[in-house]
UniProtKB/TrEMBL annotation:
Pathway: Cell wall biogenesis; cell wall polysaccharide biosynthesis
CDD domains assigned to the protein according to its UniProt record, in alphabetical order: GT_2_like_c
Family: Belongs to the glycosyltransferase 2 family.
Keyword DNA damage: no
Domain of life: Bacteria
Lineage of the organism: Bacteria, Bacillati, Chloroflexota, Chloroflexia, Chloroflexales
Record's keyword terms, sorted: Glycosyltransferase, Transferase
Protein name as catalogued: Glycosyltransferase 2-like domain-containing protein
InterPro entries: Nucleotide-diphossugar_trans (IPR029044)
Keyword Lyase: no
Length: 335
């Protein structure tokens, strides 16, 4: 039977970008079976304009901003519950312009049942490459996009497996998603929810494939234009992901010393402010992070209790928002 596919576009205060994005999706050589917009309580005219000009687009309007993970999960639950059922959901950022063969390029990689996610070849508006797959730089967990900033000369024209693909334009097999679970909504408002989901899919034995025929342009960071704010959210997501994934040994012996060096090298820079904020937020949400970690590290119950106890004390340290104090305490805890 033909694959049934839905495209989900998450919208938030970007009326100037949303209509062109949707129009490009509607011009696909292989049309989607549904085009769904999930709006995260936009204050502009985004949804009114879509409703007035594109009646074929279904709209779900959230009463508040649920972030990327929460907003996309609203759309995914809606698609999973639909009848007749869908096989694939494609997540797409609002500040993108997909090429006519984009969707066909994604779906061509789903022939094998172990393929759970397919990623796109993404370029900046000026034509430079933005994403041809992705990797994590260990032990800091920094995301590195393959091909980033390069001129596209055909060097990434072969499909290949990666352990990480960006969620900006990502196709997901719904059966695999139901098995491993939807996005972790603790990654609010954005960043690393896609890293976390990719890790869980790979951990469950699935493949993630980069599809060079699925091409598009992406403005990037349209919803968060202030650079310090963007970096703060990025590091907050990174810390949540690492605290969920890494073993206690990895945290103490690899991550902590590398993080100390990374922080020291960014003293008196805008990123220092972002890191300071991210550490404070991570400490404030440690109960939730530990709860998310526990099912993934079933033999660490006693260690988890100890972490919670010590991190409660960390939160009482004067000047706790200074990442150096937090890092020193964390190293003592994990060392």
């Amino acid at each position: 039977m033909p694959v049934r596919v839905a495209v989900i576009v998450l919208s938030w205060n970007a009326a100037d970008a949303l209509l062109p994005c949707l129009a490009a999706v509607l011009r696909q050589s292989r049309p989607s079976d549904k085009l769904l917009v999930v709006d995260n309580a936009s204050a502009d005219a985004s949804i009114a304009q879509v409703a007035a000009t594109l009646p074929e687009v279904e709209i779900l309007a959230n009463s508040r901003n649920l972030g990327f993970a929460g907003g996309m999960n609203v759309g995914l639950r809606h698609i999973i519950a639909a009848s007749p059922s869908f096989d694939v959901a494609v997540l797409l950022n609002q500040d993108t312009l997909v090429d006519p063969g984009w969707l066909a390029g994604l779906l061509a990689q789903f022939d094998e049942p172990q393929v759970a996610a397919v990623g796109s070849k993404i370029r900046y508006p000026d034509g430079r490459l933005q994403h041809a797959g992705a990797r994590l730089e260990w032990p800091l967990g920094l995301v590195r996009h393959v091909g980033w900033g390069e001129t596209d000369q055909g060097q990434y024209e072969s499909p290949r497996d990666y352990a990480l693909l960006t969620g900006a334009a990502l196709a997901l097999r719904l059966a695999a998603l139901v098995e491993v679970g939807l996005f972790d909504e603790g990654f609010w408002p954005a960043y690393y929810e896609d890293v976390d989901l990719c890790w869980r899919l790979v951990r469950a034995g699935y493949r993630l494939v980069y599809a060079p025929a699925a091409t598009l342009a992406h403005q990037e960071s349209h919803s968060t234009r202030d650079e310090v704010t963007r970096m703060a959210y990025y590091h907050q997501g990174r810390l949540r992901y690492l605290l969920k994934r890494l073993s206690l040994t990895e945290l103490s012996e690899a991550f902590a010393p590398a993080e100390a060096s990374y922080c020291a090298a960014r003293r008196a820079t805008p990123e220092e402010r972002a890191l300071r904020w991210a550490y404070a937020q991570t400490l404030a949400h440690m109960h939730d992070i530990v709860a998310a970690r526990m099912p993934l590290h079933l033999n660490e119950d006693a260690a988890h209790a100890h972490i919670v106890s010590v991190l409660h004390r960390l939160q009482q340290v004067p000047g706790q928002t200074h990442y150096h104090a937090a890092l020193t305490s964390a190293q003592q805890l994990l060392g």
